[in-house]
Write a structure and sequence with these properties.
The protein is an alpha+beta fold. The chain has helices at 29-43, 48-55, 57-62, 108-123, 137-145; strands at 20-23, 67-72, 78-86, 91-99, 127-132, 148-150, 165-169. It has 5 helices and 7 strands, in the order βαααβββαβαββ. The two termini are 19 Å apart.
């Protein structure tokens, strides 16, 4: 997530009605890729693993029991997205979170994370974790505010070159 509003950016996006978090629908697949690619290009580079996952989310996320969630308005316009990747051992990774550039810093990311935590419970996951970058101060603050805590990575390396932060969600830590 990014709260950067400096410089010219996209035209303001007016939200129509209320914002709700909903599950994957094939019609929003391109929005999932578009939002994530825009965010990655802004802050990092799009890595081969990103292209694989964003190009075929069915295989890389959904077929293994993961979820893709979308924040949408009453006009069914996608405002943001987040995914949960499920691993065999009950680990669940919060990944691929992106919000429309004009709406960053407005609470949509927080709604997506709340929806992801609910979905994690529904999935019967054992541990919810994420990998991020120390470059993303506002995002790290958001994660901390909902109960993610910095922890050492349980496995060596990451599937993302940009990842240098590992966090685990602790249910009792989110009430700050």
């Amino acid at each position: 997530m990014n709260d950067d509003t400096s410089g010219p950016g996209p035209a303001p996006l007016a939200i129509t009605g209320t914002v709700r978090v909903v599950g994957f629908e094939p019609r929003w697949r391109e929005d999932f890729a578009r939002l994530n690619i825009e965010w990655l290009q802004r802050w990092f580079t799009v890595e081969p693993i990103d292209r694989e996952v964003l190009g075929d989310p069915q295989t890389h996320l959904l077929d293994d029991g993961g979820r893709i969630l979308f924040a949408v308005d009453d006009a069914d316009r996608v405002l943001g997205t987040v995914a949960l990747k499920r691993y065999d051992d009950g680990l669940v990774e919060l990944t691929k979170m992106a919000v429309e550039p004009a709406l960053r810093g407005g609470g949509i990311g927080r709604r997506l994370i709340a929806g992801a935590i609910d979905a994690f419970h529904d999935m019967g996951g054992r541990e919810l974790f994420l990998e991020s970058s120390s470059k993303l101060g506002p995002a790290l603050h958001l994660y901390e505010s909902v109960g993610f805590r910095h922890r050492p990575a349980p496995r060596p390396g990451s599937h993302y070159r940009r990842a240098d932060v590992y966090m685990v969600w602790e249910a009792d830590a989110g009430a700050e």
